[in-house]
Write a structure and sequence with these properties.
The structure holds 2 protein chains of 2 kinds.
Chain A lengths: L3 H23 L5 E3 H8 L3 H13 L3 E3 L9 E4 L7 H17 L2 H22 L7 H15 L4 H9 L7 H13 L13
Antiparallel strand pairs in A: 1-3, 2-3
Chain B lengths: L1 E4 L1 H6 L5 H13 L1 E5 H35 L5 H15 L4 H19 L4 E3 L13 E2 L5 E2 L9 H7 L1 H8 L4 H15 L5 H6 L1 H12 L3 E3 L3 H11 L2 E3 L1 H6 L1
Parallel strand pairs in B: 1-2, 1-6, 2-3, 6-7
Antiparallel strand pairs in B: 4-5
Helix pairs in contact in B: 3-4, 3-5, 6-8, 7-8, 10-11
């Protein structure tokens, strides 16, 4: 039979690691969340999140986003995603199918999930630094964030032809097509040549 | 009106503040924009080269060391441009790896976006730089180089030597001496790459004149205005054109 000390330790362990596991399952790898958002999602006070953040940081579950100002304000979830590139791609395609099958309100919500999955796909693509796929997925992420749900159809078309290893030439072809269709990425900087 | 675009104009479609981007794009909608092989070559050996240079420095040293390395360089226009690009990518990225990806994206995007809707003409210079693309090495560096080979710039200058001789007397001392060195080298061993780069503005206006293009558009008003006036080609500043 467990003594009161063991029970206390068990309860504390549940409180500490329960939150960690909950974070692991509810948040997706690569997702950027604020302290307020964590409090809202888990239904706890900001003070509790404040206390737990230390444990999450030391457990390597999350880490602060560099240069985001207050290190406790933003946290960056880096939980290992067990899926491979093709697994994420498959899930993303399924999500887009669901997106096209739902109504406008459903689409708005699903689009947020699409962005998160696209981010996960980019993290997977980055593992192969010699493949140009990571460049294309980063481009798609820029465009998806900029154009919103209006970009969904083109995104599905591009994802159909996406492979884990693509050459510079192939990626350039896709980018050329995107530019021709009017999808541009804009940067605010002045250079004089 | 057919208008030959200088590198500064095509670059501004992507790498300038939104106000300038809008002004330039509205200007391009009103004219018939064209570029030639020489301008594509200049575009690649300036902006694309700097993007690749920055990418490789960050790949080699990491972001912190790259900053130390760049800070030690003399403050030329090129280094300022590199710093501006670095500021841009740092602003929109989270870590060193992502910076490299954004620079790679910039390398591909720049060309596609800058020359979108712009007609490409062959100017007879056959600039080798306009065909340079570069390739990724297994060590993670992107290799790109800009040697001068098999180009016909000397023949182009020789064919239009009379125009240049007329021009020499009409320009200020700096531009006049550059024109003189161009004429001199064309008559001897051929145009050297250094002279070709120094006189690129002059060559662009000369191309417009030879190809019968009525206007030249540039954001670099200082030199172009004088050369255009001397060669009787219309000079247009896209920002002033749009704002009236």
């Amino acid at each position: 039979m467990l003594g009161w000390r063991s029970s206390f330790i068990f309860v504390m362990a549940y409180i500490i690691y329960g939150v960690i596991y909950e974070v692991v399952f509810v948040l997706r790898p690569g997702e950027v969340v604020t302290k307020e958002e964590l409090a809202r999602r888990f239904g706890v006070s900001l003070r509790t999140v404040d206390r737990k953040i230390h444990e999450l940081l030391s457990g390597g579950v999350i880490f602060p986003v560099p240069s985001s100002g207050d290190f406790r304000k933003f946290v960056y979830v880096v939980v290992e995603d067990m899926r491979d590139f093709n697994g994420v791609l498959r899930d993303l395609r399924a999500l887009l199918d669901e997106f096209f099958g739902s109504d406008d309100v459903g689409r708005e919500l699903l689009w947020i999930e699409v962005l998160v999955e696209l981010r996960a796909l980019y993290l997977k693509a980055r593992r192969n630094r010699l493949s140009a796929t990571r460049i294309l997925v980063r481009d798609l992420l820029f465009l998806a964030e900029r154009y919103g749900v209006g970009f969904a159809k083109v995104l599905r078309d591009v994802l159909d032809g996406l492979r884990e290893v693509m050459s510079d030439r192939e990626v350039r072809e896709v980018i050329r097509r995107l530019v021709k269709e009017g999808y541009v990425v804009e940067f605010d900087v002045e250079v004089f040549y | 009106m057919k208008c030959l675009l200088d590198t500064s104009v095509v670059i501004s479609r992507v790498l300038f503040k939104s106000k300038v981007r809008k002004a330039v794009n509205s200007f391009l909608g009103k004219v018939e924009p064209v570029v030639t092989t020489y301008i594509v070559g200049e575009f690649r050996r300036t902006v694309i080269r700097d993007v690749v240079f920055l990418r490789n420095v960050i790949h080699r040293y990491g972001l912190g060391e790259a900053l130390h390395f760049l800070a030690r360089l003399p403050r030329t226009r090129r280094v300022s441009n590199i710093f501006n690009l670095l500021g841009l990518v740092t602003k929109i990225s989270l870590d060193g790896f992502e910076i490299i990806d954004i620079l790679d994206l910039l390398r591909m995007r720049l060309e596609e976006q800058c020359f979108d809707g712009v007609k490409m003409l062959d100017d007879g210079t056959e600039c080798y730089h306009s065909r340079v693309l570069g390739n990724m090495s297994p060590d993670g560096f992107f290799r790109i180089s800009f040697p001068c080979r098999n180009c016909r710039i000397t023949n182009f200058i020789k064919e239009n030597l009379n125009l240049l001789k007329d021009l020499k007397g009409k320009l200020s001392s700096d531009l006049g001496s550059l024109t003189a060195s161009l004429i001199q080298e064309a008559g001897k061993s051929g145009i050297r790459w250094r002279t070709c780069r120094k006189t690129s503005d002059l060559i662009i206006v000369l191309i417009a004149k030879v190809k019968g293009i009525s206007g030249v558009a540039s954001l670099n008003e200082k030199d172009f205005k004088e050369i255009c006036a001397a060669l009787k080609v219309k000079f247009v500043n896209p920002i002033k054109f749009s704002t009236g």
